[in-house]
Amino acid sequence: MTPPDIVNDAQRLAALASYDILDTPPEPGFDEVVHIARVLCDAPVALVSLVGQDRQWFKARDGFAPSETDLASSVCAHALLEPDLLVIGDLAADPRTLANPLVTGEPRIRFYAGAPLRTPAGEVLGSLCVIDVAPRPAGLSPKQASALRNLAAQVMAQLELRRALADRDALLRQRAQAVARREDLLKLGDDLREAETEKEMIRIASRLVGRALDASRAGFGHLDARTEHIDIVQDWTREGIASIAGRHRFEDYGDLLPDILRGDPLVIHDVRADPRTAADPEPMLALQIGSLVNVPVRDRGRTVAMLIAQDDRPRAWSAEELVFLRNVADRLEVGVGRLRAEADQRILNHELSHRMKNMMAMVQAIATQTLKGVPDRAPVDALLKRLLALASAHDALLTADWTSAPIGATVASVIARFGLDDGRFAMGGPEVQLGPRATLSLAMLAHELATNAVKHGALSVEAGKASAFWRVEQDGGEPELVLEWRETGGPPAREPAARGFGSRLINMGLVGSGGVDLRFLPSGLEGDFRAPLHQVRQS
Amino acid sequence: MTGRESEPLRRSGVRQVVLVVEDEPMQRMMAVDLVEEAGFEALEVADATEAVSVLEARADIRIVVTDIDMPRGLDGVRLAALIRERWPPIEIIVISGFRALAEVRLPERAEYFSKPYEPAAVVAALRRMAG
């Protein structure tokens, strides 16, 4: 006799699947129940039997060797229809079971009593049953029947508890995973900020995606202008999976373009089953792609790039995983955007510097030509030299895109224009970044000091030397930058009689507001220049 | 061509000839003055194409002083490379508003000055090259 239709009821099967119990290892709670049932009913066999679509499988068994049987051998399948216990006093006499192989052949069972395993919603999953090899025309005693019902309720309670625990574990795992993903994203943001090339950014993001999702491959690629190809810049792969970096044509892999053009994430859980790839999944399978997610990066309404995650097996990508990928793609997009902006800024700065230099050259040419006929060359020469000192300061500022200049480079670029022989000028001190204004005033100051030294001071004679050393002083109060100009080996220094522009420039000091101590000594000029460090850095 | 080469100043062996290539007139004027004050005969052109025709027409040019970025035709770097290839004995001075020498590839024996340049330093280079 064929098993009743209820066996294949979709709702019943779904309920059974929701307990995730089939093919799990034995558990003491269930084993104890079948033992008690067997003893109470004084039967050689007791089973917790769960009836699936094509078999009955025993979560617990006492006195019976096989872990499952086909449905033709199942008596329990008939118990599914019963509102209460199914008791068959003689299996060999009952039309439902007389042809059952377990009745007609070994172990020749003759008696069956089963209590249904009914879910709170009313679906019957199977039964708790006792079996005897001798017929029992009187069936179970009322006490035994009652005990069997109660034990079946216990089995259901255990199944419920088991499922609740599994749900809770899954929830905890999900929460832990969500926390880990959030941390991953934060770290990704930090790592991308540190990265200096797009390739490095892609490497960081791909590795993160691959590891966090336990994917087989993760990568990032740009789409060509006609959205026909993707150029995968770089990918991360699990061990044993080959890289697919390089150019790929969408058409070669199925009907992928509509989603990509719309800007929707392309999600394929199984390349063999998905309508977009099922017609010919071979190209995907050849690349060890069983399932995939492509998250688009859009620019002005067009998909320009995609973040890619793949698995070599079919895989149900969860909503949470898709959100994670979207987040990674967004961060990668921001990072790459920053790199592009920086590159644009560099080009702009370069152009600005170029124009600035040409402008300085124009000023130089105009001044030279305008003052060509002036017989007194000294002031003309001073003007042109000061223009060059200004140009040197701009050169120094340029290295940090006009925001600051290192003090050493600023002094060195000014002094270099004097073409002094080795050993005649020494300089040094801690590296301090000067603000734009301090850079210009220090350049002018150094230029005037060196000009005077070459004209009248130590550098006017062969044996003379000059130096500029600086330090940061912090005597309890605010830190100060102190620069010491020293000349030795030249003629005695004399205070200039008239205060010209040159000496006024010198007296303006490091940031244009004084802090200057000049000593005109027989050994040569000594000058100490001080300014609060924060002013030097900011102004 | 703003041609000084038409003037009867070509006393070969007396004054060595320097060709100034610069598209910006005022900067060219300053360079020409500088070259002449240093005791050379100056020829001036506004771009590399004119420079090549002068070089093809005259065999007495000793030094070429060229700007790098010029609007038409070859830029100064390619002009310098061409001169080194076609007229190997000619000395070359390259002047540019570019950021640093590192960004410019120069042929052998060429000297580089950044704008705005120190006139004395360029004069020193001219004299060194003239030997």
TrEMBL record, chain B:
Coiled-coil intervals: none
Domain Response regulatory: 16-126
Pfam families: Response_reg
GO annotation, biological process: phosphorelay signal transduction system
Keywords: Phosphoprotein
Signal peptide: none
Name of protein: Response regulator
